[in-house]
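Entry 14. Two folds queued back to back today. First construct below, sequence then structure tokens.
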Amino acid sequence: MGDQAQLSKTFQTIIRGIMDTGHAPHFTEIAKDLGVSPDEGRRRLHELIDLKIPGCWLYPNTSLIASFAPFNNIPTQYRITVDGKQKWFGQ
């Protein structure tokens, strides 16, 4: 299992990606931001998800983020608007 600093950087990369773009990053984007290989990015994503953080899960049998609290990567009726921009969905 990775160390706490690695998990924290992965978590922050995902949250920052969602905040910046309105959708969850692909594991290759996570890898690029962390300066690691795509396989390592996927491993770190799964390791973080395996912690069972409430509200965070992948699409079944994939490495694609479905939800990462408090954001949902799947459009929902819960739209989040900040400074007049609506580019996020809540859980």
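Second construct, same run, same settings:
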Amino acid sequence: MNRPWMPLYVGDYLGDTGHLTTTQHGAYLLLMMHYWRKGELPGDDRQLCKIAKLPLKTWNEYRATLQDFFHDGWKHKRIDAELERMMRVSAKRAIAGQKGGIGSALARMKLENASLSRHASSRAIAGPFSSAAAASADHSHSHKSLLKSAANPLTQQPAARAEKPGIAVSPELAAYVAKRTA
């Protein structure tokens, strides 16, 4: 998961790290940032010194001091709690987004259906024809086929709207709509 930002409680941080040197602050912050992005720290000193951007000799001098901020190897309680909180919030937002997506899809479908029914009812009203147009009209078609297609105006696409495809509906959305409208 992409984690482009990390919460830093400055008062808590400064209260816990007042005894660190400037170099130790930098190393600790780099370790915290790596932990935030990756969810863990490696147990190998060579990898840890690279993360902290310290020579191995300096890392070995600072290791015990920096280890005090971690437990069970290189686990960080505060960051673990923040990561768990972030995952809960992210999951809630994803669910809310899905609900919002379904709601907006329903609204679009209602607008589309209303537009189609308005357009279908306006076509049902006969318009004025000139007698020449009526005389030259082709009446060789079957009235049964006209009745079938007129029975469901939503299956017909008006000529002006033929270019625009209808809204694709997933089976999940169709089930949801059926449940909500029943």
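Quick look at the second one. The radius of gyration is 34 Å. Helices lie at 10-17, 22-38, 45-51, 56-67, 77-124, 131-135, 143-151, 171-181.
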